[in-house]
Amino acid sequence: MRIRNSFWAMLGQDISGSPDTFSQVHRAMLALAEEYCPDNAELRRKLTFATDIDALWYLRSNLMAALAASQGETVARDCISRITFLFQGRQPGGELRNRP
Length: 100
What we know:
There is one protein chain. This protein is mainly α. It has helices spanning 3-10, 19-36, 41-48, 53-71, 73-87, 94-97. The chain has one domain (19-88).
């Protein structure tokens, strides 16, 4: 567990995302990779072994690059915008930006 996560957990604020949020984003990203980038085993491996919402957030760029290479940038941007919406305020560092 990272220090930041343990610190916020002590304060009673769960910044890692609910298991439902993680599962939903994880499934969506894997589905896109399998549908549009079936030959990119490295990307699918990284997505499969991602353990938290932060890891998925940072893997969006890998997914964007793979989608753009296989489907074109327009399709990639559309797919990534739908994925980004699923994070709903769970972006890393978001808890610090929202503080008064």
